[in-house]
Known about the structure:
Blueprint: H1 8-15, H2 19-28, H3 45-59, H4 64-73, H5 76-98
Helix pairs in contact: 3-5
Amino acid sequence: MSETRFKIGELARHAGVTPRTIHYYVHIGLLPPPKGGGRYSYYTEEHLRRLRIIRQLQRYFIPLRRIKEALRLKSLEELEEEVARAHRVAHEYRDCLLY
């Protein structure tokens, strides 16, 4: 099975961020650096998953330093489950307020 590869612009588009944001996240250690080098560098599905988790956690006003710590301590699967659970709870709460 071949690995999905993204150029920075493609990754940014899929994640809903700018290439500049990706560079910043790599710089501060939220994202691993791209694979390859120079013109041949690319990002993977793992980068996309991490970016999606980061964006979702930011929606709950979690600071980047806390997100970085969570990414260090937990697997992507654990974080994806926790974010999904928080999302469900938030929607249930919102629905209770509306009725």
